[in-house]
């Protein structure tokens, strides 16, 4: 298994677990009508820090255990896999951003109904978390496509 595939596995699993927890907690807060922007901000910062604290040492450990170079120069096959994965991930991200922008009216209506005291604040919290979700999903999709690309040639 190449080092880039190992990093993709580490990123995928960490992203699914850590950010899966984060977005589950956001959904739970939304369902309970208890969105708190400050609490969500710090929860996101903690989740991001934990993800980095897991991924970097795990990648270094994988390189050391496999006696591989941490960031070797990519060959043609690796460049092709990266190019296709980036194209798909960025395509999903762009479509998601457009969909979120088109749904801002719906998000605003939900915020007005569920949070009449601070509809503008609730709208911004929901939109920011929808954008974060779009970025997380496109990033995980990109890593999954990298894994599939390497498994196809394995």
**Oligomeric status:** single chain
The helix content is over 70%
Low-confidence stretches: none
> Could you give a short account of the major beta sheet?
none
User: What share of residues are in beta strands?
Assistant: under 5%
In round numbers, the mean pLDDT is 93
Transmembrane segments: 7-27, 39-66, 87-107, 119-141
Keywords: Membrane, Transmembrane, Transmembrane helix
Structure, described:
Keywords: Membrane, Transmembrane, Transmembrane helix. The protein is built from 5 helices and no strands. It is mainly alpha-helical and 154 residues long. Helix 1 packs antiparallel against helix 2, helix 3 packs antiparallel against helix 5 and helix 4 crosses helix 5. The mean pLDDT is 93.
Name a few traits of the molecule.
transmembrane helix, 154 residues, elongated, transmembrane, mainly alpha, single chain
Q: Layout of SSEs?
A:
Layout: H1 3-31, H2 37-65, H3 76-102, H4 104-114, H5 119-153
Short account of what is shown:
Keywords: Membrane, Transmembrane, Transmembrane helix. The chain has 154 residues and is mainly alpha-helical.
């Amino acid at each position: 298994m190449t080092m880039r595939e190992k990093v993709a596995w580490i990123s995928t699993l960490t992203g699914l677990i850590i950010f899966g927890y984060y977005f589950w907690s956001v959904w739970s807060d939304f369902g309970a009508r208890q969105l708190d922007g400050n609490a969500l901000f710090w929860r996101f910062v903690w989740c991001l820090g934990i993800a980095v604290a897991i991924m970097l040492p795990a990648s270094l450990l994988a390189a050391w255990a496999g006696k591989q170079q941490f960031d070797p120069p990519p060959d043609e096959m690796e460049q092709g896999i990266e190019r296709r994965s980036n194209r798909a991930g960025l395509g999903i991200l762009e479509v998601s951003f457009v969909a979120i922008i088109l749904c801002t009216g719906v998000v605003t209506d939900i915020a007005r109904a569920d949070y009449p005291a601070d509809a503008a604040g609730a709208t911004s919290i929901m939109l920011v978390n929808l954008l974060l979700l779009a970025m997380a999903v496109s990033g995980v999709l990109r890593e999954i496509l990298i894994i599939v690309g390497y498994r196809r040639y394995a």
